[in-house]
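Moderator note: this is an archived Q&A kept for reference. The question asked for a predicted structure of one protein chain; the sequence and the answer are reproduced below.
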Amino acid sequence: MPLEAGSRLGPYEILAPLGAGGMGEVYRARDASLKREVAIKVLPAYWSRDPDCLRRFGLEAQAAAALNHPNIVSIFHVGEHDGAPFIVTELLHGETLRDRLQRRPMRLREALETGVNIARGLAAAHDFGIVHRDLKPENVFVTKQGRVKILDFGLAKLTQSQASSSDGPTATFRQETTPGQVMGTVGYMSPEQVRGEAADARSDIFALGVMLYEMLTGRRAFQKPTSVETMSAILNDDPPALSQITPGAPPGPQRIVNRCLAKNPEQRFQHASDLAFALESLSDTSSASLAAAQSAGPDERRKLVAASVAILAIIAALAYWFTRPPGVPVVEAVTQLTDDRVAKWVYSSLQTDGSRIYFNEGTVGNLKMAEVSVTGGDTAIIPSTLDNAEIAGVAPEGSPLMVMRGSAAISLKSLWLVPLPTGEPRRLGGIEAHDARFTPDGRILFSKIGSLHIASKDGIDPRKLLDAGGFVGEPSMSRDGKHIVFTRYNSGFGSPELYQAGADGTGPHLLIKGSSLGWVCCAQWTPDGRYIVFQRRGPSGQEIWAMPMAGLLPSARQPMKLTTGPLSYSAPVVNRDGNRIFVIGIKKRGEVVRYDAVSKQFVPLLSGFSAFDPTFSRDGKWVAYAAYPENTLWRSRSDGSDRLQLTYDPSDAFYPFISPDGKRVAYGDQRGAIYVIGREGGPSQKLADDCFAPSWSPDGNFLVCGNYTEIDHPRAQLLDLRTGQSSVVPGSQDLTGAQWVGENTLVASDTTLASLKLYDFKTQRWSTLVEGTKPGSVINWSHSPDYQYLYYTTGGVDPKVMRVHFPDLKNETIASLKDLRLAPGPDENTQISVAPDNSPVFTHDIGTQEIYALSVKWP
């Protein structure tokens, strides 16, 4: 029921209705405590009875409240009254952009200034990782003072199934990106939204281009008799030129509108800040010319007009030069090179000497070095006395290989040289590194935590090039030896960013911010130095992207996507001719299996689910798991019935752990934050940053997780859920993977994964539980739901699943894993879980991982 004037919502007195807005009804109200008038959006009664709508409404508030920008409406408060949630915002006086456009087209300067303000608001939201997805004149407000405010940012990724506007229906939004699902408002949707593909920041830029066209001409860019015809026009047609509708329109705005309305997202402005800059340049020039003309005499005015025309022509030419879409590289063919159906190790990049491709096969603790011809064929294993060696590079002359030896954990690894085709490996100086590559002249470029170093060909005389902070990985030097690109991971390996520096370490600067494009890494130079290629973790898997590096302005270096499903592609390396990119093509699918002690076989569990890392409640009734490979969080009963999706953002449910009572699930995200969510869904509660892999105490009062604030010195962090207090477990520095295994005991491993340690809270001492023979001996571990057993897996050529019984600490072998292909998770590691009947559980990899060649036509 609508609220009446004089009614109250807490400290807010309702003054008058203002109409519908987004998902709710909007009212003018007075804040009695702060003595100001505000706007209140209240969810209607028929929606407040819907738990899903309540959840979406809360997410709208969270998204909008996170944005603080003069061109985005401000959120003051979120509350609930008699079961109805409401959002309190600033009260705006004026009209929507739709109301303004219904009177007449805007003057050029007004349109440009309005576009600048909208672009600035979008830029702020995009930098925060929020995309509007439904930008249109109804969602832009112009105050009486001329200020521009973007409304309803909370509708990003939310359902608006009952909303409508003069533009036709608003298509359904969902929190996850589902292929084939149409999102947006007809007439303002981008081509990718029409096709049901993922919408990103460039989709908002397309919508702003449609609005700019409408502001300048008074006509819709895409408007046909039916919605289907309108969507067809968006996909296939270009709107009439501005000059056809508005004679005398200067060419500068036309260039900018064309750039915004490009069908290919890679050819649009890639950042709203660049669009704002281009519009602002035209606006400033128009304003200055107009002011000068108004103050001059008739003769001077004619001269100024002529000069203004010339200036505008120059500005238009410059705008075209600096904003024209760069040439787009095109993948013309994809060729499969291997078909051995063996797991490929995608944690490190591929390497090539021009005739062969070198890579790792196998899983954690059991890596083998392999090779295949660049034209495809049989895979050959490279014989070596080094076990579990990661390939890091191949020398410019084609031999030797450089490999790294160490555990799969975050620890320094020794560097070795392996002659090709055969020969005895030798240690490369005394270098220990986290990652390493050859330079074009054969020197060694390597990283240690947050620093980058270089050494001679023999690994001697190493010197530091730069300190970058965080964690440095995947360094690559251009063939001319002048530039380096590398990945900089922030604390906890969250928000990776691509950086460039001079070959001597000078002038490091940001190339791609992780929050603007998503998870990016592993950049490699093309031989001519004109591009870098890199991989990005997208909503449907890994993608290969390229970015031009030879532009005059940094803003012209816009990333461009090269690959689009159905496979994920990772570990790119460009061949020495530059016309092909070798990648690992991945189709992830996992079958959950358990080891049956009676039949001594692995049998299906949770049949029909492609899941990873299942976790069971103590009573055995509930299971939570990450969908594989989407990494959305789900829960069901242990027999697979009563399934419910708990999270919707892709790649955002790592290491789930269900509470002992089965009522809550703790999990982490790819940025290293820890959350708890109820078994029946609802909002997630954030508990900590820079922490991974949460584990519940048996009484449900504590969580322990791995803190990686100091990446080279992880430690166990204890979270008291009753008080919200956090503390470090004494003596846990340089230990990883902490888990509860009893009321007063934890287990963790040293960073080399050579052994398992046991911590007793009563004595506050660590002791050795399992002693490995070498780094990488212990791979993964998990306790049984009743906390009676600790199961763990070993590495090597004959990996096994073992278990330790508490309290007698008896250690026994359960089964061999030699013939079970384990699925790699989001961090390329495997997992182990334990079912309620104390049988070990794994995700069997039934997908594919093969080497492919992408034939690329460069502009």
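Archived answer notes: The longest strand covers residues 12-21.
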